[in-house]
Amino acid sequence: MLREITDSVTRWDTRLFNRIFGWGDKRFLNRSFRFISWSASGYLYPFVALYIYFSYAPSIRDPFLLSIVIAFPIERCLYHTLKHSLKRDRPFNKMEDVEFRVRPPDQFSFPSGHTASAFLVMTLLSIFFQVPALQIGLFIWAAMVGVARVYLGVHYPSDVLAGAIIGVITAVIGMWLAV
Fold first, then answer.
1. Judging by beta carbons within 10 Å of its beta carbon (0-12, 13-18, 19+), is residue 150 exposed, middle or buried?
2. Is the CB of residue 115 less than 8 Å from the CB of residue 163?
């Protein structure tokens, strides 16, 4: 029974991966998805924190920043523990005719750390700054980070889904512990 479930998930994962990766090696998509993926690498997050620190009242900024400070280490620990325990090969190591379009930061695939951090930031910003246009934009950005990681050949869709779940859960934990 468990074997049937894992085989089914693997088939679904591979099919969806092939569909997204199969959009082709197009210059515009490569550049766009590389930029979207890079945006979740962590380089921009300190600037977001600084903007919030200098732009908002302590009643909003302090709980937000404390939530981030608590949530990120939890997310990183969970991410590294899963990644190095499960040791799932990346798609380009497992599948023929798949080459990465961006160099991965490490050897293993599951879960997607870029997606986890994007969903963590998206969740906290959406909760603390309840502006519908911002929330929609942040969700689209976080989802596109996940799509980018698949398109670039470094993650399966289930890696991205797991990253999204980890990001949301650790954001909520960070907020719960901070507030």
1. buried
2. yes
pLDDT tens figures, 129-174: 989 999 999 999 999 999 999 999 889 999 999 999 999 999 999 9
The answer to whether the beta carbons of residues 118 and 166 sit under 8 Å apart is no
**Tens digit of each residue's pLDDT (9 = 90 or more) over 34-81:** 999 999 998 999 999 999 999 999 998 999 999 999 999 999 999 999
Residues 6+ positions from 138 with CB-CB distance below 8 Å = 121, 122, 125, 126
What's the whole-model pTM score?
Answer: 0.90
20 contacts 157 by C-beta, under 8 angstroms:
yes
